[in-house]
Amino acid sequence: MINFAALGNDLYTGKRSIDFVGRYKRWYLLSGIFILLATLGLVFQGLNLSLEFSGGSEFRVSKVTVSDTYEQTAKDAVTSVAPAAAPEVTTIGSNTVRVQTEKLSDAQIRDVQSSLAKAFGTTAGDVSASFVGPSWGASVSQKALQALAVFLALVAAVMAIYFRTWKMAVAGLAALIHDLFITVGIYALAGFEVSPATMIGFLTILGYSLYDTVVVFDKVRENTHEARGNGRMSYAQAANLAVNQTLVRSINTTVVALLPIAAILVIGFLFLGPGTLLDLALALFVGIAVGAYSSIFIATPLLVHMRDKEPEMVELAKKAHRYQARHGGKVLASDAAPVEHGRDEEQPEDAGSLESAGVGASAPGVVRGTHKYATSGPRNQPRRPPKSRR
Amino acid sequence: MAINPYNRKPLKVLAALAAVSIGLYGLLFAAVTWGDAQFKPKLGLDLAGGTQLVLAPRLVGNAKVSSDQLNQARDIIVQRVDANGVAGAEVTTSGGRNIVVSMPGTPPKATEDAIRRSSQMQFRPVLAAAPGTNQPVPTGTSTTGGTATGTPTGKATGTATKPAVPTATGAATTTKAGSALPGAFVRATTTPATGASTTPAPTATTGAVTPTTPATGGTATPKDASDLAQITPQLTAAFQQLDCSKDGVLDGIVDDPAKPLVTCSDTGAEKYILGPVEVRGDQIKDAVAGYQPLSNGQPSNIVEIRLSFNSSGTKAFGNVTKRLVNLEDPRNRFAVTLDSQVLTAPTAQAAILDGQASITGSFTIQSARDLANQLKFGALPLSFDLQTRDEISPTLGSEQLQMGLVAGVIGFALVFLYSLGQYRALGLVTVASIIIAALLTYVSIALLGWSQNFRLDMAGVTGLIVAIGVTADSFIVYFERIRDEVREGRPLRAAVDTGWRRARRTILAADGVNFLAAFVLYLLASSNVRGFAFTLGLTTLIDLLVVVLFTHPVVALLSSTKFFGGGHRWSGLDPQRLGAKANRARYAGRGRVAMPAPASATSDGSAL
């Protein structure tokens, strides 16, 4: 196993840096290809909706003795007539087997009826056929979409407030839609059946994608805030450094999230064959991988593009350019290093007091002599002027 | 031995976590011992099977069900099922005619009835009232009364196999037979005088009907809904023949909102001729069940349903009560009917203009809550009869769950190995945190299964497995921040504190967004999506709880040990391996300089 600690050091300090933001064309192109594939899948293949969405045919074989192998018997009987029917088999009561399939034509229904009757050793009269309506009907989808719209609007508002810029919210949502679209598209391309469980899988991806983007953006926020304070880095550089600094986190998190799902995938593939478990695991695997990718490669460059043109950021870039020219043109982590701002009230001194003690000592190795006014104590107390001056 | 002052706070926090966990497990244990909870989480329809109810619409004559009606009925039934908890039931239409409800477990009879009842609530003025039985037998059972034959019972529907409606309402009634007729509107506090079925009152019957005779000869078109001119001789005859003590007497009753109605109260104690509908059930904006407050604000033990009407309902209700106040008994009474049966018929004592009313009746708190939900989500366009009720086997084989769990264990083992490789000894903290999170999740799901009927389906199980990743991420964010701080040259204890402050912000923001997702989806979506939202919200909360109450205090405690604080090379926080800028002054920007303290500063506590 590779140990990322050393890589993390280099990425953190800026000794090694991957130009995520600068090579945006490459990433956009890659995403463009994925989106194109997804669109092709959606347009030509379409989503293969299960009978929970579109309704289907239902057969009931009554008056049978239900053996242990009823499920396989029924499935074989149905697929021998209609291979694409995706049968779902359950028992109802003690002597009835229910088989639900996708919508079949009248001729197919008759064939399946006789095939089932033969398989279970009854007459075709004991196999009833009817249509079932969708359990996840249009109204459920509509409500879910409404909820989604409200949620996205709220999340955009919350992100805009938290990050103090609506552009981060837009970039985050763009990444989210990117992830969902690609996952759904790949699903369509692979021709897997979309069941309510898959829908839940897609929603899980939505949650994960947002989570991941917020984590990366929080570091971007921290670094760019610092850069704007000291003017040593342009917005793009600070954002790029942030992505590099969180890269080890992103890799570790993605691996940790993907490991259990990979386990499900392998086990599902080896022992179970196609089924809810495998479908879900695949959706999640693709979705989480894409989600991690988009936070780094799509969301951040997108954000930088949106903000780079702001007058303030143009100004910052100029300032940073001047500074870097003076200092040999190298971007270092210390330029965006978190500085002690206002400390939290609950922990007024611990880490901080060590530092200020160091400042007071004016130890060797200080870059530049600090003004004695600044070194005189941990804090400049306000002095009360004499009464005559008040 | 004195406790290191640095450790006081973490220890306190850990104690809080222990208290929370013990409390939750204690609650579960108590619920299993004295309640009907179980230690295992409840499983959903696809994993454990359940009960399938086939509901057939009750049709009068050869009326047909339109697909619109059926879909509307399905949507309302879905809402009613959802109101019973997050069980994840499946509601489909079948054959363009029936509605199939598949629910996990075995729902109690009351739930079944609540789902399929039409719950048409109507408000009609009382034209005439009489005790419910025609020929009171001293024993109180009048089932042998010969008069009770005739028109109302004659129209039995073809599909109905059981006499459903009266038993359904009867099941909800738990008040003793001798109690007074239920209920009054809030403003109208006096309960109307009732003739209990034990008092022989032949005179009352005639007395109530006689006022109708002079009126019938008069005007043909009634002035208002309380006008006695509406009572035709047929109605009088039907009224006299009606015997409310007989089962199934109201089956096939034709309830036309524009015409008067002859019906019984739900206890069968009184029968009425009611005027046309004046306020409809769909004019109710909200319905809440609760205990009626006493004058001192304390809740009493009388169960009431508080209704608030929408603007048109408020107006209509105000007009009716204004008119009824001035009429003589029994025409000053206002009947509340549910599925054509009178729930309560209190006397109007004042005009109610603010659109707030309260119904008290023979409710238990449970039946009142069911009814309030039904009123809130609207009435079904049709009544349904239970056609079949069967056990249904799980759609997913048991091997899917088993394999899913095996995969979860393998996945967890891989996560364990990976975090040990990446974070050395700190990886143990990750694993311990995940185990704590898993224990808390388990107890929460078992408890929610008991209180909210929360059930795990396959999607939920995979969601929980994914949650391992999201939960582990909080620790990864935290550890990476600590490492960043160590790289900055901070001694470990300081690095833990500053790293925590930064990581906490990130974790709160990210979890906040996830929790928002869960909350919005839970409120607005229906059926399966609600179940998902529930799982997401739960795991997010537990993630937050564990990282605040377990991971951080444990890391804080560990940072004062020699192994971690000294930066042992297997601790995962070795400053040299992390390339810390040891003993080098660091310019911290804005004219400040940060000097890392020598390593000895970590153990002497001088920073205090």
Characterize the structure shown.
Chain A has helices at 4-13, 24-45, 51-54, 70-81, 106-120, 138-163, 166-190, 196-230, 235-272, 276-308, 311-326, 351-361, 372-375, and strands at residues 48-49, 56-61, 88-92, 96-102, 127-132, 193-194. Mean pLDDT of chain A is 79; it is low at 338-366. Chain A folds into two domains: 8-48 and 138-312, Multidrug efflux transporter AcrB transmembrane domain (Multidrug efflux transporter AcrB transmembrane fold), CATH 1.20.1640; 56-132, 2-Layer Sandwich (Alpha-Beta Plaits). In chain A, helix 6 (138-163) runs antiparallel to helix 7 (166-190) and helix 8 (196-230) packs antiparallel against helix 9. Chain A is elongated. Chain A is of the alpha+beta class and 390 residues long. In chain A, strand 3 and strand 4 form a beta hairpin. In chain A, the strands form two sheets. Chain A has a four-stranded antiparallel beta sheet. Chain A has a two-stranded parallel sheet with strand order 1-6. The termini of chain A are far apart. Chain B has 608 residues and is of the alpha+beta class. Chain B has two domains: 5-42 and 395-601, Up-down Bundle (Multidrug efflux transporter AcrB transmembrane fold), CATH 1.20.1640.10; 119-366, no CATH class. Chain B has helices at residues 5-34, 45-48, 67-83, 109-116, 151-154, 165-172, 202-209, 212-216, 233-241, 311-325, 365-377, 398-423, 425-451, 458-487, 492-524, 528-558, 562-565, 601-604, and strands at 50-57, 90-94, 98-104, 121-131, 261-264, 270-274, 279-280, 284-293, 299-309, 334-338, 341-344, 356-360, 384-392, 586-589, 592-594. In chain B, the strands form four sheets. In chain B, strands 4, 5, 6, 7, 10 and 11 form a six-stranded antiparallel beta sheet that branches. The radius of gyration of chain B is 34 Å and the shape is elongated. Chains A and B meet through helix 1, strand 3, strand 5, helix 6 and helix 8 of A and helix 3, strand 2, strand 13, helix 12 and helix 14 of B.
